[in-house]
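Work Package 3 (structural annotation) set out to generate three-dimensional models for the target panel prioritized at the project kickoff. During this period the team completed the workflow that converts sequence records into discrete structure tokens, so that structures can be stored uniformly alongside our sequence database. As a representative example, we reproduce one entry of 268 residues exactly as it appears in the project archive.
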Amino acid sequence: MRVITQLAWHAFRDAARGRVLYVLVPFAVLLIGAAWLSGQLTAGQEVKIVKDLGLTAAALCGLFTAVVLGVGLLAGEVERRSVYTLLAKPVRRHEVVLGKYAGLVLALVVNVGVLAIVLYGVLAFVAATESAEARRGWETPAVDPALLKACFLILVQLMVVAAAALFFATFSSPALAAAMTLGLYVAGHFNADLQTLEEIVGPGLTASLATGLSFVLPNLAPFNVTAEVVHAQPVPPGYVALTTATGLVYAALFLGGAMLVFSRRDLT
């Protein structure tokens, strides 16, 4: 456990030194600010716009962080041959994968946490500058605790994506691993559409392949509760718990596959 903790800390420091967080987080912060400015042009809708675009920015920023770091932390070290330095020490290969993943999750927690704080700050500013009459017309308060549910599920989804990125990075090049991870993310959000494709195009090879993929690929759509939070629809704690458990199972499967492949990979 001590080895994994040390590897996780080094992976987190490598992520910080890689400056990915320094580029993507300010970009998302600017997007949240732009959402507030655009909201000023739409009377009575500024809070909804800030929430919607703010949560979307957090998800996209986290996605690219998970893909870039998830692929680079492992595949990058293999390409640079620096992984041999680790394996020359009393460190097992599965500990390398677990340590890299734990460091990546820590980076994602910081990423989503910073964006959540910024989003709440912008919403608090909007609430403070609006009149009491305008605030009474809002469906939900500006500083809505339900936003934390959305941010938490975004984080769980990113944990799945990060595990998938590590898995693909164990047997492919960084560019191919990134492409496969992004493809899985997109397909995962259209999982339900893949299941119903046969009803649209009729029976055939394409429909059968889509149906098969729907059972293999993780369903990432349930992790997106932005619409529910923005439009004051309830997100029960039971739903959050079940979706979180599902996400942890997805992540564990990808992580288990990554450890298995990396343990058997010939690095010579």
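The two ends are 27 Å apart (CA to CA).
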